[in-house]
Amino acid sequence: MRERQAVKLRLSGGDIAFNALNYLFFGLFTLLCVFPFYYLFINTISDNQVSSLGDVMFYPVGVHFGNYVEVLKIRGIGRAALLSVGRTGIGTGLMVLASATCGYLFTKEKMWMRKFWYRFVVVTMYFNAGIIPWYITMNTLKLTNNFLAYILPTIVSPYNIILVKTFVESVPASLEESAQLDGAGFGIILVSIIIPLIKPILATIAIFGAVSQWNAFTDTLFLMSDAQYFTLQFLLYRYLNEAASLAALLKSDPTLMANMDLSTMQTPESVRMTVSMVVVLPILFVYPFFQRYFVKGIMIGAVKG
Questions:
Q1: With the CA atoms of 95, 98, 103 and 106 taken in that order, what torsion angle do they form, in degrees rounded to the nearest 10?
Q2: Which residue from 258, 277, 259, 257 is spatially nearest to 267, judged by alpha carbons?
Q3: What is the pLDDT of residues 121-144, one digit of tens each?
Q4: List of domains in the chain
Q5: Dist CA 115 CA 257 (whole Å)
Q6: Mean pLDDT of 301-305
Q7: Is 160 exposed, middle or buried (0-12, 13-18, 19+ CB in 10 A)?
């Protein structure tokens, strides 16, 4: 305690001014980051007609929760939400496991044809055949109207494997050598030593994978015609298009508009913002739990040294 007090007493006026400006700058920066989400939220609970005119800026006007009620009324939204959670959880878990395993094995000189397989994985980052060959391949593999279409293509991620490999190379070799002297094999070393030490990079790639899986809807658009395989994002995408068409129809028919409550009537802007809020909320809740690993993981995983 005395040392802390002594440090505080030694702070000069310049130090105090610098700290104050530092806190002020980062406080304003934090507000700039948070405000877009706050803006989305207050517009989703405000009078839809006022919101469509752009008059809702800092506080809600005519508060109501009809927009969220309408979204929850979408047919099949519960099943679609479970499907999105399932593909995000399973797909991310398998991707992290595959990246950890491959990244570790590619650091071992004893791996059979290690350089060939590593280059074989990396080269896929530079070539993309396009949508039509991709669809033909998926159709040939019977992955249309199949939940595995969401999982199998995302398990191997060359970029994430490179990050994990670089991170593993920063782990002291003496730890593995000690375990090998005690009779541990590669599998035991990976599970007991390597994975606990590379949690930061695993958390980092888990964020990448989860966000990618959660936001994906184009694979549903191309591969799924059965409604039971529609994900939440694809369902909300369709709802957005249908709501925009319905709003245009109502505006063109004064009789229909006269019989509706304009404050809660869906508009393209209200639908767009509500859908955006529903899609981004799960990521906002999950991200803080991984954020403490993110900076360390991406810096050490990206730079060897």
A1: -140
A2: 257
A3: 888 888 777 888 888 988 898 888
A4: 65-302 (1.10.3720.10)
A5: 67
A6: 45
A7: buried
Q: How far is CA 98 from CA 102, 205, 301, in A?
A: 6, 11, 16
pTM of the complete model: 0.73
Based on C-alpha coordinates, what's the Rg of the chain? 26
Q: Which two structure tokens, joined as six digits, stand for 41?
A: 């939220």
d(CA 49, CA 70): 16
Look at residue 94 in the predicted model and tell me its pLDDT: 93
Nearest to 208 by CA among 300, 290, 97: 290
Residue with tokens 């109502």: 250
